[in-house]
Description:
The chain has helices at 33-41, 51-59, 89-101; strands spanning 9-14, 19-23, 70-72. By secondary structure, it is α+β, with helices and mostly antiparallel strands.
Amino acid sequence: MTNVIGSETLVKIGSDGRKHTVPFGGHFRFDHGLAAREALLAGRWVAPAHQWLVNDLLADGHLKQILPDYALEPVPLSLLIVPERAHVSRVRLLVDFLVSHVDENPGIG
């Protein structure tokens, strides 16, 4: 569970595209995905997690997915750039790379 407002409710999207809302709570509260990842890895809880955060742990068998037919709502990906730096080649290359690969990461919208 996170410290984010509304995190006491879990919204899952079924394979048919329908949203299912269920109450969700626990004793741990996180405001950072890597902290939640470490708690999952330590076997401390059951939690919703986007696949991009735990794909390697699932592939290695360190975690087990318990609702494979459901997904979380996508989270937005934001990149903040100082306007004067927006046209710097390396910044532009990073933006172009992220735009071209964002669809490869389930859960980022």
